[in-house]
Amino acid sequence: MHSDLRHRRKVARTALPAAVLLLMGSAVVVQSSAPAAAAETTLRAAAAKAGLFFGVAASPNRLYPIVGQEFSQLTPENDMKPDRIATSSGGLQNTSGADTLVNHAQSNNMLVRGHTLVWHSQAGALQGASQATLNTFIGNAINRWGSRIAYWDVVNEALEDNNTGRRRNQWPHTMNRDANGDGDFFDAGDTDVMRDSFIRAKQVVQAGGLTTKLCINDYDVDGLTVQGGTPNRKANALYDIVRNYRQYIDCVGFQAHFNDNPNSIITDDLQANIQRFADLGVEVHITELDIDDDLSNNDIGAGQAENYRKVVRACLNVAQCTGITVWGISDSESWRSSERGLLFTGGNGSYQKKAAYHAVLDELNKGRNPTTPPTTPPVTPSVPPTTPPVDPTTPPPPTTPPPPTTPPATGCSATVSLNSWTGGFVATVRVTAGTAPISGWSVQLTLPSGATVTNAWNANRSGSSGTVQFSNVSYNGSVNAGQSTEFGFQGVGTATGLTPVCSAG
Ligand code: XIL
């Protein structure tokens, strides 16, 4: 449970009837934007046009018509958690609520996010279980619903509070072992609950030929920084996990429960943080969005609406941000009802749209706006993935990329930075356009003998050893003059002295 809940200071407010709030909220929208001619009138339709899903957390007793009308994705708020469905030996029980939700989603043409397999909280009969038992549960749960689950949160909230960048020290993370004492859990000899759970989940998905994608989900990981500009160490730690386990992880969820805790505010670098995860080749989702109305300076909804707009825009501006889910329908039925953080007021199937709803709809209707480049340039990871220092509060020295080659007048250039460990490596290649824009690129490099590429992201690949060729995928071929894009690959063996050769076209 979030520790900030215990320390919250609430601003006293004069209570206003819902109807007044609604009128005031609506007035804001009318002033700020006239609806576009072809604007969609539901969140799901507007989101679909922009190429993303817009979802909601739901429970079986709240499956009102609005769920299928406004939303195109459903996350069981509680009904797929281990305390509901797991037995102590990793079997399944009490799945009827989850079944109801999955069926409802299916008949309303909604995606489902399974939530969640491995979590220290709401663990029920799994509390204290071994990795073997967790693996049994992972197999049973994934196989029960198969490809009807589009995304599974395999690991939830693995990282500690208070921006330490460390893992939690509660079960199941007490099972982690750092065999060589180097301060991380990424080495082959280490025991890592996250890695082992993802490996198991991936095996199950592959064995069943499922289309289900496997996600890691956490909170306070939203921006590159937290309040005051301090680096978001929790986000950096999550980034390292995804980078190291990229072959097992398909998607990253930012819970996005924004409140007035210094580590969970909305920062201007949210988009850049989404982008750096996207650059690893994973899908990014905003999975549990609610925005405390306190963040609106007690202005009865208008500031909250603008905050919603910011979050939706940040996602829309990154092509691989493929979905946003709000954590409930209405304020009064929310897990944090006092924060009035959702898009509707009302209850029991009778809901009224808030200013925040209109802002989200309006922003979705504007679309992805791909001609506008992100406001923040691509970010170089602040922490290398393989060998964090023994003291995690001290940032390790950054890996030194080779000096950039001078960009040619036209065409492109490429640089590579390498993170290596005994027996393996991850390479990040930056492709930079010359003085003219390019509409496609390919990069060739020659690996030393014994080195083999095992997977790549943000690029098509041909070859796996010797001379290997990479080329752009659909969304990163066009690079403006002087701008860059990144792709990456992972391999076994030793990769040194890589000299990438870039050609445009
Ligand atoms: C919350 C539910 O909304 C509540 O009904 C329940 O009592 C506690 O859990 N992070 C998560 C969600 O991943 O599962 C949590 O959901 C909210 C925080």
UniProtKB/TrEMBL annotation:
InterPro entries reported for this sequence: CBD2, CBM2/CBM3_carb-bd_dom_sf, CBM2_carb-bd_dom_sf, GH, GH10, GH10_AS, GH10_dom
Catalysis performed (reactions): Endohydrolysis of (1->4)-beta-D-xylosidic linkages in xylans
Superkingdom of the organism of origin: Bacteria
Keyword Oxidoreductase tagged: no
Region annotation (Disordered) ranges: 365-411
Signal peptide: 1-38
GO molecular function terms listed in the Swiss-Prot or TrEMBL record: endo-1,4-beta-xylanase activity; polysaccharide binding
Residues forming coiled coils: none
Domain CBM2 residues, every copy: 405-505
Active site: 288
Protein keywords: Carbohydrate metabolism, Glycosidase, Hydrolase, Polysaccharide degradation, Signal, Xylan degradation
The protein's Enzyme Commission number: 3.2.1.8
Matching PROSITE patterns: CBM2 (PS51173), GH10_1 (PS00591), GH10_2 (PS51760)
Bias (Pro residues): 371-407
Protein name: Beta-xylanase
Organism of this sequence: Verrucosispora sioxanthis
Lineage: Bacteria, Bacillati, Actinomycetota, Actinomycetes, Micromonosporales
